[in-house]
Specification:
Helices cover 34% and strands 21% of the residues. It has twelve helices and 14 strands. It has helices at residues 8-22, 46-50, 62-74, 93-100, 103-106, 136-140, 153-165, 222-234, 253-263, 278-289, 314-317, 321-332, and strands at 2-7, 26-30, 55-57, 78-82, 116-121, 146-148, 170-175, 182-187, 206-209, 214-218, 240-244, 247-249, 266-273, 299-303. The strands form three sheets. The protein has a seven-stranded mixed beta sheet with strand order 3-2-4-5-7-6-12, with helices on both faces. It has a five-stranded mixed beta sheet with strand order 9-11-10-13-14, with helices on both faces. It has a two-stranded antiparallel ribbon with strand order 1-8. Helix 2 (46-50) links the parallel strand 2 and strand 3. The protein is globular.
Length: 334
């Protein structure tokens, strides 16, 4: 095994490279992913090494990208498509929710669609309108789709490998503000005869930090903020547990429940608006499961129920350290 330190974006690149090398049926497709290597350079060098027939630059047509991927999957391929920015996915929404998500059930299990849709999402990069959305709850509401979001380079690599191997469609939300955050990744070396040892199931949450007084649950870009909040709270004598959900659909409620039964308090954090967000489902389920263990209501921290603001105001919109710690204070006050 080889352990190395690399940014999250590079870990995704290496996962795509490994998938292309291991399975000739894996194809990549998206706007500017080939010669340019993607606007964030996540696919840099892949077209050069694997050719234009496997790493394809597509027209600026998201519905066409997803529709073509569905056709390729029906013919036995494993397409991995990139939507260039989160806010551009909506022209493909019909294809995703009425075709991609439904085909397995519509065919009574005879047809599987192993399609991965990669979507850089969230704010924090100073982008213009339609480039900083967090639409995960819209897709999580649709049965038939798997929705995941990594927070570390290791998870980015292994979760993407698992998503590509899945026979069902997976939407892979990549926290673009974390693309350049470094972390350790352990993979088999090139000379190893053994297969890859995947650390954990795709939809299994992980405890990122142990604690006893309160649980913070988050995924994607907010896990780092929650870890920072836990470190700050420790200076005030509070022990905060941080659960990285990793998956938004399905959600590993068992891991969250076990944590809340220990701490008695839960704050759910995500970038997307709190109103009708994924935190609402988590709050409702955990209240049902842990009613007699809770010492305070489940609280939620997220974006405001308003269109994403201009870049100069996004730090006021996005949940940060202060808003998370404020929720910790409010929960602890009960």
């Amino acid at each position: 095994m080889v352990t190395k330190s690399l940014p999250l974006a590079k870990a995704i690149n290496e996962a795509l490279r490994a998938a292309l090398e291991s399975d000739p049926k894996v194809l990549l497709m998206g706007e500017d992913i080939g010669k340019l290597g993607g606007v964030f350079r996540v696919t840099d060098g892949l077209q050069k090494d694997f050719g234009e027939s496997r790493v394809m630059d597509s027209p600026l047509a998201e519905s066409g990208i997803v529709g073509t991927a569905i056709g390729l999957a029906l013919r036995g391929y494993r397409p991995v498509v990139e939507i260039q920015f989160d806010g551009f996915v909506f022209p493909a929404y019909d294809q995703i929710v009425t075709q991609l998500a439904k085909m397995h059930a519509r065919s009574q299990g005879k047809v599987r669609l192993p399609v991965v849709i990669r979507i850089p999402y969230g704010g924090g990069i100073g982008a213009v309108e339609h480039h900083s959305e967090s639409p995960e709850a819209l897709f999580a509401h649709v049965a038939g789709l798997k929705i995941v979001s990594p927070s570390t380079p290791s998870d980015a690599y292994w979760m993407l490998r698992q998503a590509i191997q899945s026979d069902d469609p997976v939407i892979f939300f990549e926290p673009k503000r974390r693309y350049w955050d470094k972390g350790e990744l352990t993979v088999p070396d090139s000379g190893s005869a053994a297969g890859p040892s995947i650390p954990g199931e795709l939809h299994k949450a992980r405890v990122a930090r142990e604690g006893t007084d309160l649980t913070l649950a988050a995924y994607g870009p907010m896990v780092k903020v929650c870890l920072q909040a836990a470190a700050a709270a420790e200076e005030e004598g509070r022990s905060i547990e941080v659960v990285d959900l990793r998956s938004v659909s399905p959600i590993d409620f068992d891991t969250v429940q076990a944590s809340v039964e220990k701490t008695g308090r839960l704050v759910v954090v995500h970038e997307a608006p709190v109103f009708f967000g994924s935190g609402a489902e988590i709050a409702a389920r955990i209240t049902e499961r842990c009613f007699h263990h809770l010492e305070a209501p489940v609280l939620r921290v997220g974006g405001y129920h308003a269109p994403y603001p201009p870049a100069r105001l996004e730090e006021e919109y996005l949940p940060g350290l202060d808003r998370v710690l404020d929720a910790v204070d409010r929960s602890s006050a009960y």
